[in-house]
Amino acid sequence: MSYQNIYNKLMAEINNAYGVCGLMGNLKAESAMRSDNLQDSGNRKLGITDTEYVAQVDSGSRNFVDNIGFGLAQWTSAGRKASLLDFAKKYGTSIADEGMQVDFIIYELNNGYKAVLKKLKNATSVKEASDCVVKKYERPANQGESVLNARAKKGQAIYDEYATKREVIGTMKIYKKGVAFQLSNNFKSTEFDCNGKGCCSETPIHSNLVKVLQQVRDHFGVSVNLNCGYRCPTHNAKVSGASKNSWHMKGYASDIVVKGVHPMRVARFVETLPDFNGRIGVYTWDDKGSGFVHIDVRGTNSRAVYTENNTQYDTVAGFSVSVKQGSKGRLVKVVQRKLKSMGLYNGAIDGKCGKGTTAGIMKFNALHGRLQDTSWGPKCWNEAFPI
To answer: Are 195 and 162 found together in one domain?
Structure first.
């Protein structure tokens, strides 16, 4: 994870830039924001490096509950280190996994440190939030004014760099699960509720996500169904193939089906939105429109194509990439399926643009007045999957 991703993840929980940056400034002071960081005195005492310590703990050959500071927050006490180890085992990750440690911080704040979480959510300055973290969460031996000021300074620097990026951060709000709140003209909060039963009571929803979905609804003029919106960590762990750091767990993502509209058309439309900044994954199983589109507003752009299952995909530059003889990949499969449905190709759906696929592309182009054109370019995409 990057600073930005850690910031976004904490924002999804705390929803206050002052609180997030006050906390992150402390993490930076404790560990230089390194999740594999073993307290320096521990390195000297044990005579091993951070990497060696992690490997030994992960293998079970070293006792982790040793009162030596470790990780982003430099967890030290027996109780907190035992809890962190148990948390990592449940996640199935290394003790040094950064995403797991951020989730553990969120877990601690929601359980043994509720007063700290409340302060972080309501702080009106980075200094106010940072001082609370020092005194009630990190609790270093030295809590003097110089330490408080130094940590607040680190937090302020993070705030200045990340909290001003409103186009990435947007607004995160938390809604009560099962209670419908009108988010936009066509969407209610309950449509984003976690599909799990008895696992959670709240639904975080990013405003940028709602904005994109409303734009999709307005453009196509038909209903947009959410297969999946928010997934709480408990339910996410039960979903086959789901990423352990899924953006669904943050309230940033939705999987949608637009009634009667091929997923590739939906994906291509979202790609044209000038203010969209996130990931688009098109899941298309045939040319009849089966599948769905994953949309998230993580703040960094990426595109992916799935054609067989929910786990194997190709990362692509965009959904109008040219296909020609010699091209390979899942975008070629999308083209082959389209050509086959039109009776222009009778070969295998193998993702390889050979002579048969090229001949089909030439026939498709000819139907649109482009004779002897063997390349499937932007015009073909627009004609086959119009926006």
So the answer is: no
**Residue 39, C-beta contacts closer than 8 angstroms, at least 6 positions apart:** 68, 69, 70, 74, 76
Residue 172: what pLDDT? 82
CA-based Rg of the chain, rounded to a whole angstrom? 25
Q: What tokens were used for 171? A: 């607004």
In the block, tokens 């553990």 appear at 104
Place of tokens 């430099």: 74
Please report the pLDDT score of residue 3 as a whole number. 83
**Domain span holding position 334:** 330-384
Q: Residue 117 and residue 129: Cα distance in Å, rounded?
A: 10
Is the pLDDT at 377 greater than 60, yes or no?
yes
Can you tell me the distance from the alpha carbon of 64 to that of 255, in angstroms, rounded to the nearest whole number? 40
Kindly state whether residues 199 and 261 are assigned to the same domain.
Answer: yes
DSSP one-letter string for 215-280: HHHHHH-S-EEEEE----HHHHTTSTT--TT-GGGGT-EEEEEETT--HHHHHHHHHH-TT--SEE
pLDDT in tens, 197-232: 999 999 999 999 999 999 999 999 999 999 999 999
pTM higher than 0.70 for the full model?
no
pLDDT digits (tens, 9 = 90+) for 315-341: 999 999 999 999 999 999 999 999 999
pLDDT digits (tens, 9 = 90+) for 148-166: 999 999 999 999 888 755 4
User: Same structural domain for residues 66 and 178?
Assistant: no
**Number of other CB atoms surrounding residue 182 within 10 Å:** 9
Closest C-alpha among 256, 266, 254 to residue 206: 254
Q: Looking at the domain assignment, is residue 223 inside a domain? A: yes
Residue 365 maps to a domain = yes
Q: Same domain for 155 and 58?
A: yes
For residue 298, what is the domain's CATH number?
Answer: 3.30.1380.10
- Cβ proximity of 279 and 298 under 8 Å: yes
Q: How confident is the model at residue 174 (pLDDT cuts 50, 70, 90)?
A: confident
81's CB contacts (< 8 A; 6+ apart) are 64, 65, 66, 67, 70, 75
Domain count, the chain: 3
The Cα 55–Cα 61 span in angstroms is 9
| Among 67, 71, 149, 54, residue whose Cα is nearest residue 105 | 71
The kind and range of the H/E element at 292 are: strand 291-296
